[in-house]
Amino acid sequence: MKKPETDANLQSMQVGSIMRKVKSRAWKKQRYFRLQDDCATIWYKSKKAGNAHSTFSISDVEAVREGHQSEVLLSIADEFPPDRCFTLVFRGRRGNLDLVAESAEEAQSWVKGMRKLIENLENMNERERLDQWISDWFKKADKNGDGRMNFKEVQDLLKMMNVDMNEHHALRLFTMADKSQSGTLEDDEFVLFYKMLTQREEVLRIFQDYSSDGQTLSCRDLEEFLREGQLKQDHVQQHSMELIEQYEPSDTAKMRQAMTIDGFQMYLLSPEGSIFNPAMLEQHQDMSQPLSHYFISSSHNTYLMGDQIRGHSSVEAYIRYKHTYTHKHIHISTSQYPVILSIENHCSVEQQGTMAQHLTRILGDKLLRNALEGKGSDLPSPEVSNLQISLTLACCVCVSIQKSKQGLSKELSDCVVYCKSVHFNSFKHSRIHSKFYEISSFAESKAKKHMKDAGAEFVHHNVRQLTRIYPNGIRTDSSNFNPQEMWSAGCQIVALNFQTAGMEMDLNDGLFTQNGCCGYVLKPAFMRSLEKRFDPEHPEIRDGYRPVTLTIKVISGQQLPKVNLKEGSIVDPLVRVEIHGVPKDQARQETRHIDNNGFNPMWHETLTFTIHVPELALVRFVVEDYDKTTKNDFIGQYTLPFSSLQQGYRHIHLLSKDGTSIPPSSLFVHIRIKEGT
Description:
Elements: H1 8-15, E1 17-22, E2 28-35, E3 41-46, E4 54-57, E5 61-66, H2 71-75, E6 85-90, E7 97-100, H3 104-122, H4 126-141, H5 151-160, H6 167-177, H7 187-197, H8 201-210, E8 217-218, H9 219-229, H10 236-247, H11 251-255, E9 258-259, H12 261-269, H13 278-281, E10 294-299, H14 316-320, E11 342-344, H15 349-363, H16 382-389, E12 400-402, H17 410-413, E13 420-421, H18 427-433, E14 438-443, H19 444-464, E15 466-470, H20 483-487, E16 493-496, H21 503-512, E17 520-522, E18 548-558, E19 573-580, E20 587-590, E21 602-611, E22 618-625, E23 633-641, E24 648-655, E25 661-675
Parallel strand pairs: 10-16, 11-12, 13-14, 14-15, 15-16
Antiparallel strand pairs: 1-2, 1-7, 2-3, 3-4, 5-6, 6-7, 8-9, 10-17, 18-21, 18-25, 19-20, 19-22, 22-23, 24-25
């Protein structure tokens, strides 16, 4: 990591602190924590552990919470004041690290210092990220810690990096990089070795195809690349100059308004060169429509950390499940749009009154208690709810309450405004009798039956009414159903077990990454009109039917992670592309596998799909380690809405099974979208 400017908090962290690591009320042990000189790693050890120590990277930490903001720290609140306590929240599903400092001042040094380091990491440019990655590999390979690498250490490094290279070729690269002829590689020599190792022949070939002189891309060369390679038509002259200014590292080339191969590769690896259109990551959709016109990110039995029967119940689950996206996820405490709380009520009438008191006392004016003005015949919009409520726990949420067998208390009933839970009879009955503020809940199997029997009516019903879908009761293992089927019928609240990683959660994360990760995605126009008819089983029977052809050329992969930790094991990767949408669009194709190359596998294979309802389609890229005798091992994946695809040469920055990033692992592809089949 590029070392930050001198900072008192970071200096204090580098000196180190003795703090209590807390796992429970009974387990509180002292550990010595220190920020290493690279400002990228935290080192810690027990006083009694001899030389044994542990480390974690700053990049593993997603957030820092101050005070008693975890169940563990709340349990010891009577022993230690909040100003000495803080929690490090890790990415993915790794447990929190709860710490108690010796003083409030020391806690503040760590809280402020960690936040600064996280911010620095998030603001790194591509060159700095590459430097950090190189530095990380150097430290892993330098086993004896002498600041240099001999050839044996380099050979071990190649295995760690998933590179199957014969000894002769590896020695040739090593010798070329060893400019000092010392038989070892030091800082700059290792950087040279790494660059020779990671030279991208396929990127160089594209660069040279568009370069007039074979050395650089002039502004005119870059314009041609943007038009032909990236399939862009608008403002290409202005855009080419902006790209040079932003990504070209050579001042000499910049002065000539030209781009070198280094700048070209940095552009392709940047967010602008990503397959996900950056404009779609921002909040860009109309948020003034009724709640029933949006897909709403929803979790099922959110309090569970594991399966439905033995799973530990914890408020921590509500906090942790916002950390599953690569991009910033939906923050219950900071989202500007309303949250719907669905309460399954098994309490006595007396206890319901107590529950109502807790809701009103804890949520206060965040709880919507009265209908919003001017919304007499329609559900409010996320935007209007926000203006009225100011924060998120807009239980216009919320509160949706299913009656207990003992009846519903008036106090609890008064907490419900817009989401009155009602039994579903039939679509015909709902058309005649249902009120706009009523919501029906369906188990997944019941919802599938309605889709099969009356798909178009289900879509029509969901124009005006909210529908909640939840997993079948037999899913005691907290497995998930495919949410795409439900979205294809216009169902808004499709509740998944967020604690269970897999394809279903990948689809959920992929859909809700767009529109600022606010938890609301506007449904397509044909699913928001009572006058229009859409049947997911027969998508061709609708106004504005325009199928498209999606062509994906899978070119190469970069630095894929090892999945089998056995020494000498190297992956045999293949790429599968899946289309998830209406039944007619469900499809998957895959490349051949590449033997023993997880470092820079080359496929150059073209996959073609016809998509009938692109507005509802999600595209999922999966990389697996091929095994001819057993099931393939998962390596990484990336899922995004079809509408967020960028055409042209793009990198796909892969995610782990639990949805966290695994830099610098990526795929390099070319995307082309054409109207018609």
